[in-house]
Amino acid sequence: MRWPLPIRARLVGLPEPVLDRPETCGEVVPGVHRVGFRMILVVRMLHLLDGTYELFRAHYGRKDTVIGVNGMDLRATLGIIESTLALLREPGVTHLAASFDTVIESFRNDMFAGYKSSVGMEEELLGQFPIAEQALEAIGVVVWRNIEFEADDTLAAAAVKWADDVDRVVIVSPDKDMMQTVVGDRIVTFARREQKMYDEAAVVEKFGIHPESIPDYLALVGDTADGVPGLPGWGAKSAAKVLAVFPRLEMIPAAEDEWGLELRGASRLAETLRDRIDEAFLYRELTTLRLDASIAESLSDLEWRGVPETEFRAFCDTWGLDADAINVHRWS
């Protein structure tokens, strides 16, 4: 089991953290008595952006057309620039990175033929992934490009990597599978359209289960966004009711009379689970986020220092966007 119980045990209940920046102050400040100390950078919140979702949202949410080079419609790229700058204007957004599905396919497609792929995606949208990645780098945001893994895997890995270095990690994504990373109010998700923050209590309120059971829940009910079918007959209510008592698939008794639950159709559900338990375990593996995605940056690398004007204008010139029409509130 890759996730999440050992990590949750490590993260819950730790004292308020800070990030040590190993810079020794060499000079004496007048009026201050000092024997020797280190500068300490206090990072209150780390924001991790689901770039793939934001690009889809910009593409389908904007009704205008933004013509760039060679007649290409760049409304998704312009949209993600504007929405990310808007996020960076929010109070407390000081450290930010974005993760993209640089290619839609991942190792999960080798595990299950029905898993989501780029087949059928609009070419106009698919072609903007590398441009959008360049766009966020041009506004000074760290970008993670994912080939073998998915964007969500790197977001989860980053959240765990820095959870004890900040007061709170905010994963900016509405995806259900990201909620498995939630730990108390230390790691949370944020759905921008709903303006809804999901800490552990909110996950329990929404799904009736704790975050560590989210992969098991998705294995039973399916996840249409990722092409995971789930098991026939299992729905949100039945899965939540069973997993609230037996949080992992292997903990669910084979015989429904051992469940101790009043559940309509329990006999049929138990039979389906017995007959298709191998499928359920596969679906759970598909929906379990990997924490071994490689991240080269340090936390200080994710501090946003403003838009680098030269790089930003060069990007806009390359792709035919009007740099002066974009509301940049802070230059580096």
Describe the structure.
The chain contains 13 helices and eight strands. It is of the alpha/beta class. The chain has two domains: 189 residues, 5'-nuclease (Rossmann fold, 3-Layer(aba) Sandwich), CATH 3.40.50.1010; 77 residues, 5' to 3' exonuclease, C-terminal subdomain (DNA polymerase, domain 1, Orthogonal Bundle). The strands form two sheets. The chain has a six-stranded mixed β-sheet, sandwiched between helices. A two-stranded antiparallel sheet has the order 1-2. Strand 7 and strand 8 form a beta hairpin. Helix 2 packs across helix 3, helix 9 runs antiparallel to helix 10 and helix 9 crosses helix 12. It is elongated and about 70 Å long.
Attribute tags:
13 helices; DNA polymerase, domain 1; alpha/beta; 8 strands; 2 domains; six-stranded mixed sheet; elongated; about 325 residues; about 10% strand; Rossmann fold
Q: How much strand content do the residues show?
A: 5-15%
Gap from first CA to last CA: 43 Å
User: How are the strands of the largest sheet arranged?
Assistant: 5-4-3-6-7-8
Helical amount among residues, as a percent range?
25-40%
Using only C-alpha atoms, the radius of gyration works out to: 22 Å
Q: Give the helices and strands as they follow along the chain.
A: HEEEHHEHHHEHEEEHHHHHH
Quick recap of the structure?
By secondary structure, the chain is an alpha/beta fold. It contains 13 helices and 8 strands. The protein has helices at residues 5-11, 51-61, 75-88, 107-111, 123-126, 129-138, 151-162, 200-207, 214-221, 236-245, 266-275, 277-287, 309-319, and strands at residues 19-24, 38-41, 45-50, 95-101, 142-146, 168-172, 187-191, 196-198.
